[in-house]
Predict the structure.
Amino acid sequence: MTAGSRIVAMGHYQPSRVVTNDDLARIIDTNDAWIRDRVGIAERRIADAETVADMATFAAEKALAGSGLTAADIDMVVVATCSSEDRCPNVATRVAAKLGVAAPAAFDLNTACSGFSYALGTADHAIRAGATRNAIVIGVEKLSDLTDWTDRSTAVLFGDGAGAAVVSAVPEGQEPGVGPVLWGSVPDKGDVLRIEGWQPYIKQEGQIVFRWATTALAPLALQACERAGVRPEELAAFVPHQANTRIIDGIVKRLGLGPDVVIAKDLVESGNTSAASIPLALSKLVERREVPSGAPVLLFGFGGGLTYAGQVVRCP
Ligand code: UT7
């Protein structure tokens, strides 16, 4: 048994192809001003030949390189995604094969946009139980495959990418770096955001999701802080799911954060990358050294199924 886990290193990957709002305005009836005002996105990255497993592997390789560990040290690979190309094998085993991880517990987890926090919570529990010592936790999406490029209500929102964390058991006597997860869902409203059946395009009742996100989530995010014993004003950064700047601003207003807190707004340059949005944004904050190592950061994901999950982590 161990006292808990911590994020040792992060990594991320985005495809090189940039698609701007003006690019979209050439193929559908939309415009840059509407997208910036109503959503907050300026551009997004769209994959070409990269598969979900490729993007996940590129992000994981960077996280592994920064962790000081090797593939031989990893005993669990967890991939949060709702856009895997195949039903079987899962993405996690493909990533493990590409990384050269020999015999890990390897599984995918699908809670759409809240997936990274669910996956991080699951890895943390496995480490606490002694079932795992070093896990790679990945959020990855190739939503461009699931986008109806003629539907302006969804086509402007999404992007592709991946973020990954190496999560390890903390040595005896040290404080854990991953706080208790606060997770849940609203099953009776689960259908308001969906990717159904054999013509799998993303559909959502955007206003219902928007209303839920701006009313229900701030108190839940505060519960995640409470579980970690961290007051909101002590947070160094807030990394919410990157769906809409108006949603982020609405939640932030109700959290009571300190004046110097860093608020992740990676969606401006990346769009909404669902399960990848939180690890992608966190990895960039770490890379740019915008948050001191060891400082408390609140992660909070929400989305399809009206699932949500969040936890306070110590910045790697
Ligand atoms: O990641 C998973 C979680 N998902 C979310 O958090 C998404 C939550 N929802 C939202 O962020 C917002 O509801 C959207 C960004 C999806 C939509 O914004 P909205 O302010 O709710 O717009 P709306 O759907 O009410 O549409 C307002 C108007 C409509 O025109 P009329 O009927 O007022 O004439 C739409 O047809 O904007 C029109 N519209 C557009 N105009 C230009 C819708 N999409 C576009 C577009 N370009 N792309």
The chain has two domains: 5-169, 182-314. Residues 30, 34, 38-39, 113, 152-153, 156, 193, 206-207, 209-210, 213, 243-244, 247, 272, 274, 303 surround oxa(dethia)-CoA (CB under 6 Å). The chain has a mean pLDDT of 96. The domain at 182-314 is CATH 3.40.47.10 (Peroxisomal Thiolase; Chain A, domain 1).
